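Give me the 3D structure for FMN reductase.
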Amino acid sequence: MTEPNTPTLLFLGSPRRNGNTETLLRHVGQGIEEAGGTWELIRLPELDIHPCIGCGNCEKKGTCILDDAMPSLYPRIMAADRIVIGSPIYFYGLTAQTKLFIDRCQTLWSRKYILKERRNNPEALGYLVSTAASRGDRLFEGAILTARYGFDAMDLSYGGELLARGLEHRKAARENPDLLDQARSFGRKIQSRDQGMKKGSKAS
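Predicted structure for FMN reductase (204 residues):
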């Protein structure tokens, strides 16, 4: 296990500042603080992250040849006890910025499955926070699947998700007190590692 004050990493994949996803992530962070933890928001769209080129170097050496922001993130990902990915839904999936980040975790997948390197904190968990304007029944299925397999590459078990649909304008989340309460509760449960979170939390 890592130190108890290791911050929860909140990876924000929305290209829009102060939108619904960021609002919920920040309230998740408030819940983490209420439960005695710390957190750090990392804005993926503002990082220099290149697309995976499928060269296979990570399968042989466990390292990525691309010189960008990801190599500095890998050790932080592996040291974290809790990671949250936040993304709005674009065309029934995660944003391009979020998917780019997850694709580049192929390096971590290679370390885990080919080079047999595992993290030192095996109880670490990954969570998803996702928002959408529409209300389709299967709206979040693609995002959840991608997030789950991304977390698996990071050697994280899946802890659950907070999903909010029907947020049709930029301030919709901040104008919904019940949803903000759900986000803070989600954060408190993340910090306390409540195993009941495995079933997730869904907001309509």
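The helical segments are 20-34, 57-61, 70-79, 96-103, 106-113, 141-153, 177-192. Let me know if you want a second pass.
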